[in-house]
């Protein structure tokens, strides 16, 4: 029994880790040719990438056939009922079980095939990139080095971001190059405490009113709102990935006053910088 529990491909494995990853090579009649059935799901998330053959995922009378390149996301508590499709001789699928970092949640809101089971299929031109990242996550997770799990988690974060980037690119028309240049300029000068729209407009050869109009037209927000979003996003990243003091994080994103930084951060995220950092450390 203990031996079975040490194999994540077999029932009884505890998945008591922040990240576990592997390949399940199911072949008709083989020792792995059975249906996984977890009616209450799991505590963490599972990503599943079909590599070869076909699998079938079932959920309360509905089913979905997974084909090579399909990526499924099972959130915590989602029904797990899947196995080799009866019409296929094999189903090779890679998988990653993980508990997300606190700031990942917006990246884990995927379109569902049914219930809460998320689905993503990369464009043909991007398929190799996602497959490569998936393999790197597995290689890192199965490594023996001191930082193997952390490296795997960072690679998983990269893959989630690549998906967000791919979705954004497919949905949005190309940005006006002046808006794009303005965004880059703002991002490069987040630490400037004397920020003004006129300086950005001058940099991209537009009047402040014209830049403001283009920003709202193409991004749906004002220049100042977009900049604040970027500052808070950068602050989240620094709080979750460094031990930089809160005051230094604030200065890094243009807040000279720590109390004001904490107030703005809490307004945007619902938590103070210290509370946000503590939540990331516990995740």
Report on the architecture of this protein.
The protein has 283 residues and is α+β, with helices and mostly antiparallel strands. It has two domains: 2-171, Jelly Rolls (Sandwich), CATH 2.60.120; 177-282, Arc Repressor Mutant, subunit A, CATH 1.10.10. The chain is 44% helix and 20% strand. The protein has ten helices and ten strands. It has helices at residues 2-5, 124-141, 148-171, 177-188, 197-203, 208-219, 223-241, 246-252, 258-269, 273-282; strands at 19-27, 36-38, 45-53, 55-59, 62-66, 71-74, 80-84, 90-98, 112-114, 117-120. Helix 5 (197-203) packs across helix 6 (208-219).
Helices and strands in order:
Layout: H1 2-5, E1 19-27, E2 36-38, E3 45-53, E4 55-59, E5 62-66, E6 71-74, E7 80-84, E8 90-98, E9 112-114, E10 117-120, H2 124-141, H3 148-171, H4 177-188, H5 197-203, H6 208-219, H7 223-241, H8 246-252, H9 258-269, H10 273-282
Antiparallel strand pairs: 1-8, 2-7, 3-6, 3-8, 4-5, 4-7, 6-10, 9-10
Helix pairs in contact: 2-3, 5-6, 7-10
């Amino acid at each position: 029994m203990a031996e079975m529990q040490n194999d994540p491909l077999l029932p009884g494995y505890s998945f008591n880790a922040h990240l576990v990853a592997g390949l399940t090579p199911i072949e008709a009649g083989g020792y792995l040719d059975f249906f996984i059935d977890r009616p209450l799901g799991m505590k963490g998330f599972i990503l599943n990438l079909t590599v070869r053959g076909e699998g079938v995922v079932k959920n309360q009378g509905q089913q979905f056939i997974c084909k090579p390149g399909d990526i499924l996301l099972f959130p915590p508590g989602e029904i797990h009922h899947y196995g080799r499709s009866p019409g296929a001789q094999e189903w090779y699928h890679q998988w990653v079980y993980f508990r997300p970092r606190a700031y990942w949640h917006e990246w884990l809101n995927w379109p569902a095939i049914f219930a809460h089971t998320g689905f993503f299929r990369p464009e043909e031109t991007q398929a190799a990139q996602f497959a490569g990242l998936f393999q790197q996550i597995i290689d890192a997770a199965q490594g023996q080095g001191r930082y193997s799990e952390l490296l795997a988690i960072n690679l998983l974060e990269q893959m989630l971001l690549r998906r967000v980037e791919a979705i954004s690119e497919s949905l949005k028309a190309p940005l006006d190059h002046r808006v794009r240049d303005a965004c880059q300029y703002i991002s490069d000068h987040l630490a400037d405490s004397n920020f003004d729209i006129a300086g950005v407009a001058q940099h991209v050869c537009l009047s402040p009113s014209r830049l403001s109009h283009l920003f709202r037209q193409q991004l749906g927000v004002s220049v100042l709102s977009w900049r604040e979003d970027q500052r808070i996003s950068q602050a989240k990243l620094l709080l979750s990935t460094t031990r930089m003091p809160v005051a230094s994080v604030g200065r890094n994103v243009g807040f000279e006053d720590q109390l004001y930084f904490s107030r703005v951060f809490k307004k945007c995220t619902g938590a103070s910088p210290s509370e946000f950092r503590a939540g990331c450390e516990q995740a």
